[in-house]
Amino acid sequence: MNPDPKDPLLLEHEADGIKELDNLLPRWWVWLFYLTTAFAVVYMLYYHVFRAGQLQVAEYQKEQAIGDKIKSEAISKFESALGALEPVKDQSALAQGQETFMKLCAPCHRPDGGGLVGPNLCDDYWMHGSNYVDNLKIIINGVPEKGMLTWRGVLRPSEIQAVASFIYTFRGTKPPNPKPPENQQQPKKPSEFE
Q: Taking the complete model, does pTM exceed 0.70, yes or no?
């Protein structure tokens, strides 16, 4: 249906044979436009001019500080109870520990615990203590001078305990081609002059 060429709402320009009608916008649309404009002005004054409210960055930093405090308290509580902890025997916790080990630890210690860049976890020659509590402390604090990351603040206490318990299951296993013990000194070769 073609519009009447004498229609007063018909504008004079056209594009590809299409002419435009000069209709008024719907009232609801105009009022919505006015409301969004007013909201933008109030928002700008409240947050940017008078600084009465916190911007997203400040809100994020505030929430991050609260989260860091909760994390630090949980780790401190966990560390204070370390002496009484024993390896968990629960299969679901060990499965969680295995998953964490495969994702974070196996690249340095091998999936079977035999050691690559990191030491062998299957033998009895541990450089930083071989009992379960020592394992927990090593995971929490890392060994930066040897390249092991600290997992404090990255893993939850339950995850640390699960992965330490899983590592504890490697004790006494015999993986193929394990890394040799690292805390033993090499035997001295007899001197030719003795």
A: no
